[in-house]
Amino acid sequence: MIELNQTVNQDVYTANLSRQRVVPLAEQQTLEMSISRGQGRGVPDNDVRTSTTSNTAAKPGVDPVLDGFYQRISAMDKVTSTQIKAELSSAFHGDKSAANQALWFAFNQANSSGKRALATQLKQLVSDDFMGRLITETPTSAAELKAILKEEFQFVSRRETALWQAWSQLKADPDKSALVELIRDELGHLIQLNSLMRNMMTNTTRPDLF
Question: Is the pTM above the cut of 0.70?
């Protein structure tokens, strides 16, 4: 188990996991879906569509709608969450699935481009629904936390991002100490799982075999 403490830094830790090369997120998610199918767990139709769009955007072009959304918010000076939400509403007209896909796309783009201020705003937004559920439906066991994560996020890479955000927001609240402990334990497992996924993608010459 990986121990987390008050001084752990997500960016530093993540950088240490991927020294050889950066594994495209779409490739990791494809591997996750393949493993999931191999274990007999079905993938909901809407998630299949989301993953297909993501993979298509990465090979070789980019979805123009998602890219247009990202280009607009990245061009803003000191963009706020209110401005990002307004752009989402304008671009996707209440389609929550499409808006979530756009947020994750923009978050990954901002992260890989080194736009830390924008990435920070987007990371908050992609975790909003999950944070709301943690507060209103506070899990009391590891099984309950895992169930919420699986309902909110198909990919383990996204679960890790959401848990980092939750941990950073709740760790200083003494009333949430039991929840923070559950988050710490689950985050430790996901860090190791994501590290394994990245290593598999880094060291195989035929990722299409998975």
Answer: no
Cα 2 from Cα 53, distance rounded (Å): 34
132-157 pLDDT, tens digit each = 889 889 999 999 999 999 988 888 88
Q: Tell which residue, 24, 13, 19, has the closest CA to residue 168.
A: 13
Among residues 145, 123, 122, 120, the alpha carbon closest in space to that of 133 is found at: 145
Taking the C-alpha atoms of residue 182 and residue 140, their distance in angstroms, rounded to an integer, is 8
Q: How many CA atoms lie within 13 A of 133 on its CB side?
A: 17
194, containing H or E segment: helix 177-203
List CB contacts of 178: < 8 A, sequence separation 6 or more. Answer: 140
Dihedral sign, Cα of residue 110, residue 127, residue 152, residue 83: negative
